[in-house]
Design brief:
The protein contains six helices and nine strands, in the order E-H-E-E-H-H-E-E-H-E-E-H-H-E-E. An eight-stranded antiparallel barrel has the order 1-3-2-6-7-5-8-4, surrounded by four helices. By secondary structure, it is an alpha+beta fold.
Length: 225
């Protein structure tokens, strides 16, 4: 049976300090949920989403569940999710079905790919995650504006956001694309992206990295505004 990956974003117009504290405090509550396989609380980048400066109004929660039923129970019935929804001004949940994944997140690759065709209401989702080498932080962050511009101008990208566990050192991105062809065109034909990949290899920016591709479907957006 396929695991169910959920990536949730919460935006706060108030309760921002509470939201910041949940980066640690929420984990103990989430770990009590039945069927949980993996969870990370994540901050986000300011501006276009790829930034040295954090966005203190937006936080993310990545969770992986044994089944879709376990994921739905967490989203619809858990006290921790009720608190997130009550205190945030808006929420967006993405259901992710792993299609391909390589690399490590910490000591494991948490995603279990099960290739299949996309459903009519699904797009392609990409998560890239890396732990940066401390000695390479300056050169990496100097290259971030070019990377942000490259994906912003890419054909077929529908949405993207920088996410991460620790500022400056552990960084990730989540992007949604119209099709796999658009992803491949950006990865293999974009001169801007090719230049970034070349710099990555030349400067050995990453101590550890992971790339994962998903079938992605947005779940309903709620708002308390």
């Amino acid at each position: 049976m396929a695991q169910q990956v959920v990536l949730s974003f919460f935006t706060y117009s108030k309760n921002k300090f509470w939201a910041f504290t949940q980066m640690q405090r929420a984990l103990a509550q989430v770990h009590k949920q039945s069927g949980l396989l993996f969870v990370k609380t994540l901050g986000t980048g300011a501006g276009s989403g790829f930034s040295l400066w954090p966005d203190f109004s937006t936080y993310a929660l990545l969770s992986i569940w044994e089944t879709k039923a376990c994921a739905n129970a967490f989203l619809e019935e858990s006290e921790v999710m009720k608190n997130f929804i009550l205190r945030s001004s808006s929420q967006q949940h993405f259901a992710l079905h792993p299609l391909h994944s390589h690399g490590l997140w910490g000591k494991t690759n948490p995603f279990e790919p099960l290739p299949r065709a996309l459903d009519p209401d699904e797009k392609i989702g990409i998560i890239t995650r890396a732990t940066l080498r401390p000695s390479r932080l300056l050169s990496f962050w100097r290259a971030v504006p070019a990377a942000s511009k490259a994906i912003q101008n890419a054909k077929g990208v529908l949405w993207y956001k920088g996410i991460g566990e620790w500022p400056m050192v552990q960084q990730a991105t989540f992007s949604i694309w119209d099709s796999l062809d658009d992803v491949k065109a950006f990865a293999y034909k974009s001169t801007a992206h090719a230049a970034i990949v070349k710099k990555t290899r030349k400067h050995h920016w990453y101590k550890q990295d992971l790339f994962a591709r998903f079938a992605v479907r947005p779940l309903p957006l709620n708002s308390n505004d």
